[in-house]
User: Fold these one by one.
Assistant:
Number 1:
Amino acid sequence: MAHHDRSVEDLLNFLLMRLDETGFEQLVAHEPTRMMAPYFEGGGGRAETRGAMFTGCATCSQIPAGSVFPSYLHINVEAWPCLHVRSLALPLADDPDYRDGWQPEYTRYASGKLIHQDHDLRQPHQLAGQ
Ligand SMILES: [Zn+2]
């Protein structure tokens, strides 16, 4: 896989060392990909088109061709780690190297906004150290 931000690398390495073959195949389908989301910057009839670079998921982060988001905060494309990758990591939450920030409830859009889920996806798990 290509080089990515350190936070991305950390989760990738965490998973690559622990996933079984089935999990690995799912991770490959949801690998991090650098992508650009076009959006409008400014207003009052002088809006310019800009591009926001972010790390998205090869499967979950789809930007329809030709689309431009109304503003940066409107970029509602899932960022990596996507919910699927976070769900892959969740059974490993007891691992001392697991980070709370990887939990599914912290899935974010490329804009940085949290994705609000319609239902609670958290599953009970033991706290680290127990
Ligand atoms: Zn994904």
Note: The CA atoms of residues 76 and 109 lie 5 Å apart.
Number 2:
Amino acid sequence: MTALTLLTYIAAALLLQVAAGMGVAFVRTRGQRIGRSEAPIERHAEQAAAVPTGAWSGWREFRVLRKVFEDRVRSQCSFYLGPVDGQPLAPFKPGQFLTFSLALAPQTAPAAKAAERPVAVVRCYSISDAPDPSAFRITVKRAQAPAQHPEWPAGLASGHLHDLVHEGDVLKVKAPAGQFFIDAEVDVPAVFVAGGIGITPMVSMLRWCIQAQPQRMLHLFYGVRHGGELAFKEALETLAQQNSRFHLHEVFSAPQPGDVRDMNMHHTGRVDVELLRATLPHGRHRFFVCGPPAMMSSLVPALGLWGVLPQDIHFEAFGPASVPPVAASAGNTQAMGVSTPSGNTFDIHLGRSGRTLQWTGQDANLLDFAERHSVAVDSGCRSGSCGSCETRVVSGLVTYPHQPDADMAPGHCLMCVGVPQSALELDL
Ligand SMILES: Cc1cc2nc3c(=O)[nH]c(=O)nc-3n(C[C@H](O)[C@H](O)[C@H](O)COP(=O)(O)OP(=O)(O)OC[C@H]3O[C@@H](n4cnc5c(N)ncnc54)[C@H](O)[C@@H]3O)c2cc1C
């Protein structure tokens, strides 16, 4: 990083801090302070969601109205969901997600098999379309066992949704949530960078922008291995043909014969800063990034090193945090990374079970710590999104490497992303 770039970051960070102190409205992605909206965020929310209010707390039942595969290899399936109570849908900001509680059947889940009854798991899925008053759409990719461990079980929730949830079935869903959503600053071109299933929040943001921000320049870089894995291919290519302000770039890391046809739209390799630099027009852009861990951990820091301001980098990782704290040091002087000060050990007292355990900094978060000590904690997304592991902190201080998506009641913490900064007593 050049001295000039570093100074720019420091100046930007100071400005943001000063502005925050003055009560200026900011929106946040996970752990990153991002740009000030021209319009207050409340107005943005109204613009983003042209549907009647219908927010709810807790679980609400939704019926699967339609199930549609979105890619040639049938690994990504959309579910259209209508509320069973017939009441209006909640407004949402394009980019946000829904949280599901799924009752896994004994035939799919080892835990359910052992218990001989369905076992509930909680998972989050981004809304994959612009606001529609009649239904939400989510799109779920079947999670396979990792290539290096084919003996491990395949993804539980995604397998259940693909194989055992059918049209007419009812699912339990929490209201839209999340801090990764499109902004209202139409003068700054938006660059959506998606890897694989990270396309879902991008499609929602993109479709909304095309309707609500027709003057905004939009770029989508969509990385997959080959054309068979492209979801929403026809819809995206049609949008690009019909909207001169939307530029689509399909990027294939392992193209198959016939994949590379139009060199303006198709690229071979990975979505990296070199491709962005070679393709984007000169000037400021706002980046929205969502993809697999390898993309998140390389591209997000690289954008900072390229000189993109922290407030122009928004990202969301699906699942346990895959953006290391280096993302903060690479471009974000807002203290994003927190970890236990090295060498500190703390007593963690579990009030309900009467146990006192010692935190030595060996675990990434309190959930891993609890599980290593065989303490049962409800959990879902393991990334601060669903709120399942929310636990009351009787005393002590818990901090977060990234601002969690899930809201917490005062005096509570999220175990899956929380790190102690002092001795703790937890209501556990
Ligand atoms: C905010 C947010 C939005 C999201 N949006 C989407 C979306 O739009 N679409 C989407 O498809 N997903 C999305 N996700 C991811 C989704 O929530 C789930 O994490 C995903 O579907 C996998 O869940 P699963 O239960 O199928 O897999 P899991 O059962 O959780 O397994 C995950 C992986 O771990 C492997 N595994 C199994 N056993 C082990 C073991 N012992 N050790 C290590 N690994 C093991 C599995 O083979 C699998 O590959 C989102 C996540 C978040 C947090």
Note: The longest helix spans residues 3-21.
